[in-house]
Amino acid sequence: xxxxxxxxxxxxxxxxxxxxxxxxxxxxxxxxxxxxxxxxxxxxxxxxxxxxxxxxxxxxxxxxxxxxxxxxxxxxxxxxxxxxxxxxxxxxxxxxxxxxxxxxxxxxxxxxxxxxxxxxxxxxxxxxxxxxxxxxxxxxxxxxxxxxxxxxxxxxxxxxxxxxxxxxxxxxxxxxxxxxxxxxxxxxxxxxxxxxxxxxxxxxxxxxxxxxxxxxxxxxxxxxxxxxxxxxxxxxxxxxxxxxxxxxxxxxxxxxxxxxxxxxxxxxxxxxxxxxxxxxxxxxxxxxxxxxxxxxxxxxxxxxxxxxxxxxxxxxxxxxxxxxxxxxxxxxxxxxxxxxxxxxxxxxxxxxxxxxxxxxxxxxxxxxxxxxxxxxxxxxxxxxxxxxxxxxxxxxxxxxxxxxxxxxxxxxxxxxxxxxxxxxxxxxxxxxxxxxxxxxxxxxxxxxxxxxxxxxxxxxxxxxxxxxxxxxxxxxxxxxxxxxxxxxxxxxxxxxxxxxxxxxxxxxxxxxxxxxxxxxxxxxxxxxxxxxxxxxxxxxxxxxxxxxxxxxxxxxxxxxxxxxxxxxxxxxxxxxx
Length: 577
Fold this sequence. Notes:
The chain has helices at residues 3-15, 19-32, 37-49, 53-66, 71-83, 87-100, 105-117, 121-134, 139-146, 151-159, 165-177, 181-194, 199-211, 215-228, 233-245, 250-261, 266-278, 282-295, 300-312, 316-329, 334-349, 353-366, 371-381, 389-399, 403-409, 414-422, 438-443, 457-464, 477-481, 503-508, 539-548; strands at residues 427-432, 448-454, 469-474, 489-492, 514-519, 527-529, 535-537, 554-564, 567-576. The protein is built from 31 helices and nine strands. Helix 6 runs antiparallel to helix 7 (105-117) and helix 13 (199-211) runs antiparallel to helix 14. 63% of the residues lie in helices and 10% in strands. The protein is α/β, with parallel strands linked by helices.
C-alpha cells in the first residue's frame, strides 16, 4: 500500500470519527516515513480529540520542529495547551499563529476564552470584539461576548441570537442560574436539536433534570454526553453525584474515572470524599478531603467537610481548629456553629471537660451574639439559662433534612409509645412541636384530624409531605397556645427537652388533655441544661406543675426515649387530663 493511499485512508477514517483505526494507519506511515510533519500533526489531532492533550502537545511540537512555518500546527498546539491550562504558553503560540497568518478570527476567540478562564474579562471582550471586527457575521464571538456580561445585560443580547445553538445553550445556563428551570430546559432542548453532537448541551440537560428531581432523565442525558465524549468531566461528576445520591456502588468507579482524567479536579475530590464519608470509610474520606485542601487551602466548604470527617474519626481538636477557621470566613453559616457545638459537647462527654469549657468561653467572647455559642457554654457549665427561641429555630432548621434518619438510628421510641398510650384518639389533636410529623403519623386515624405547630418552617415542609395534617402552623408553641385553641388532645413529643421552665406552657394547657415526653433526672433542680445540649426535668417538678394547674388524672410511664453514645436516654411520658 502506497504512502499516499494509506494517508488518504487514514484521513477518511479520521473524518468519520473512527479515531483508533485512523491512528493505527498514521503510526504505520510514521514507521515508514519518520517525522513526517503532516502525519505528526494529524496524529496530534487524534490525541486532541480523544482528550489526551499531553500526547497531542508532544506530537505538535515534533511537527513544528520539522516544518516551523505552518500556522495550523501552532494553532493546534495552542489549543491543547489551553486544554491543559498552560495559558501563557497557549497565548504565546496563538500569537505565533497571527504572526504567520494575520486575520484569523478563531485565534482571537481562543485567546478570549483563555482571558475569560483566567478572569481577565476586559481582555476577553477585546479579543471577542477583534473577531467580530474581522467577521461581522461571527455569531460565536457575539454570543461569547454577550455571555461575559452579567445575566440581566446578557439576556436581551442572547435572546436575539437564540436560533444559534450556542446562544440557546448560554440562555439555558442563565435561566438555570435564575432558577427558572422550565425556560432553561426549553432553551437546552432547542440547543440540543440544533447541535445534537454537542456533549456540553447534554450535560446541561442532565443538570436541569437533576434539579427537577427527574433522576432517570438526568442519568440518560449524562450518559449521552459520555457517549459523545467519554472524558467530559461535568458529565462524569454529574452522573457520579447522581449515583452517590442513590447509594449506588457505580458512583465510586465514576469518581475514580474522573480523577484519572483530571487528578486536580477539586469537585471530584470533594464529592468523592463526601461519598466515602457516607459509606463510613473515614480514612479514605480524610485522604480525599486533604487532597482537596491541597488544591485549594482557602476554600471554607472543604475545610468544613474535612472537619466533619475528623470529628467522626475522633480527631476532635483538629476538627475544632478547622471549624473555627471556617467560621471566621463564613460566620453567617449556622451549620458551622452547630458543628462546633456538637464537637464541644462530644469533647466534654469524652472527659475533656475543662478544655471544652475553655473553648466554649472563648467562642462566646469572640462571638457574643452567636446563639449556639451561648447555648453550648451554658450546657457545659450547667448555667441556668432560659430557652433561646432563636437557637431552637435555627437548630431544627438545620436538623430538618436528616431528622428522621438520625432519629431512626437512635431508636427513637416516643411517637410509637404515645400512639400506644392514647390509643384510638378521636377528634382534633394539636401536635405541638410537630417536627417532621413522626408523632402525627403514629396517631393518625380516620377518626381524627391533626394540626401541626412548629417553630421551624423546614420541619413543617417535611411534615407536609406525609399528608396527615389538616393544618400546619409555623409559630412558637407558647404563642400558639395563647390563642386558647380548642382541641381534644395536645401532644408534645420530644419538645420539652428543648425548653427549660415549663410553667407557662403547662398553665396554657390547663383544662386540656395533654400527652408529652421529658428527659428526667431526680438529681437536678426543677430543670437544668445538660451536657447533651437538652434540658433535664425533675419528675417532682413536673408533678408539681401538673397538680398546680388542676390536672388530677395523671398517668406517667418510664421510657428509654432514644439512644445516645449507644446508651439509653431515660425519660418519662405523661398523659394528664
